[in-house]
Amino acid sequence: MLTIGSLPITESSVISLVVSFIIGLIIGLIIKRLIAVGLLILALVIILMAIGVLSPSTVVHWLESAGQYVNTAVAEANKLKSYIPYDSITFIIGLIIGLLK
User: Cβ(95)–Cβ(28) under 8 Å?
Assistant: First the structure.
């Protein structure tokens, strides 16, 4: 068992740090991909509106329909929030690397 100062470094603490880093990295990559997909969908909708295929009222209807599922998504996200080690510095480092990579 290694020690830094008076703090012992155990195998379980190293595994915990590595797992929280990997979870942060994966969540960062997922957020980055979701933002990219959202921007692509937004660009597609703008182009379709510009050429007259979609009307603004159709887009508003789609947004209202999607808004009905937001409460369900928020409830599911709150369930998952308890599993994410968002207070760990290694998670935050992994999240930032995932967002920037």
Answer: yes
Q: How far apart are CA 46 and CA 35, in angstroms?
A: 16
Phi and psi (nearest 5°) for 68?
-70, -25
Query: Which residues are registered as beta bridge partners of 8?
Result: 3
Tally of residues, the chain: 101
pLDDT at 1: 60
Whole-prediction pTM value? 0.78
pLDDT for residue 6 is more than 80? no
Q: Where are the beta strands (DSSP E) in 1-101?
A: 2-4, 7-9
* 17 burial type by CB count under 10 A (0-12 exposed, 13-18 middle, 19+ buried): middle
Annotate 76-100 with b (16+ C-beta within 10 A) or e (fewer): eeeeeeeeebeebebbbbbbeebbe
